[in-house]
Specification:
- One of its GO terms (molecular function) is fatty acyl-CoA hydrolase activity.
- It is a single chain.
- Helix content is 23%, strand content 33%.
- With 168 residues, the protein is α+β, with helices and mostly antiparallel strands.
- The protein has one domain: Thiol Ester Dehydrase, Chain A (Roll).
- The longest helix has 17 residues.
């Protein structure tokens, strides 16, 4: 039997590195140092980045920016980029903004994420950027907010998040 491929068929190959090796190193580093090492390519990014073509653009204490250029492989059934792409980018930005404020050995996890979708995203929009900012960082809970924008500054989505701070 031969494998027939329709002219409409497209393929996308992704590669990633073992996520546990980088995470293990990261637990020994302050969050800002760890995220900076990923942004500079000294440590591998999270595997989800490969799926979305997402990269860390900038890292500062309390603020992280991710970028991606969506293509049709991220479309939902109605012909626009799936809302989960915006949610993933915003979750990454706001949670990593929290991570950037944490000392070595302290972890976090998202407890709540609220997304407001403002505009549809389609292939051809070019690069989109998710910026996350810490609003309040406490010893047990941190709050962050973020926005997703097109290259021309058009607002695509906003987010607010609560993260649980996990201390050993």
């Amino acid at each position: 039997m031969t494998d027939t491929v329709s002219p409409q068929t497209r393929r996308k190959t992704i590669t990633w590195e073992d996520p546990l090796a980088g995470a293990e190193q990261g637990m020994r580093m302050p969050g800002l140092e760890y995220l900076t090492a990923m942004a500079e390519g000294r440590l591998p990014p999270a595997p989800i980045s490969a799926h979305l073509g997402m990269s860390v653009v900038s890292v500062a204490e309390g603020e992280v920016v991710f970028a991606a250029t969506p293509d049709e492989s991220l479309y939902n059934p109605i012909g626009s980029v799936h809302g989960g792409v915006a949610a993933t980018m915003l979750d990454s930005a706001v949670a990593c903004a929290v991570h950037s404020t944490l000392p070595a050995g302290v972890g976090y996890t998202s407890v709540e994420l609220k997304i407001n979708y403002v505009r549809a995203i389609r292939a051809g929009v070019g690069e989109i950027r998710a910026t996350g900012r810490v609003v309040k960082s406490g010893s047990r809970v941190a709050f962050a907010e973020g926005d997703l924008r097109a290259a021309d500054g058009t607002l695509l989505a906003t987010a607010s998040s609560t993260c649980l701070v996990i201390r050993p």
